[in-house]
Amino acid sequence: MASAGTLERLLALAARLRSDNAAFLDEPGDNQMWYDRGYGSGILAALDELGYGDAVGDQRAGEAEEVAPHRALAWGQAYDHGFETGRRETFEVIGPRE
Fold it and tell me: Residue 53: which residues within 8 A CB-CB, separation 6 or more?
């Protein structure tokens, strides 16, 4: 189980990455922006999967549908890579919830 401090830091990091890159859909071709947005979303997805859905809420609502048309493009792939990296590293930091 994640300590309250670890959970708060992960949520703050995800919020910052998502906020700093809120206009990612308006910036096709900015692979770093898409990666960072995906990383933040991957953190939230992992937390949700680990049972912290109450803390995550609906922050990611609708994002998968917005990203879907871009998946075959370089920036969409950057998003997916960021998402998977953020998700994996969150599991590494927290581990399974007991």
Answer: 47
Residues 6+ apart with CB under 8 A from 58: none
Q: Nearest-CA neighbor of 42 among 94, 3, 1?
A: 94
Q: What is the pLDDT of residue 57?
A: 87
**Alpha carbon 79 to chain centroid, angstroms:** 9
| CA atoms of 21 and 32, how far apart (whole Å) | 9
The mean pLDDT value of the chain amounts to 92
19 token code pair: 């906020």
Q: Are 42 and 64 in contact (CB under 8 A)?
A: no
**Cα-atom radius of gyration of the chain, to the nearest Å?**
13
Cβ atoms of residues 13 and 46 within 8 Å? no
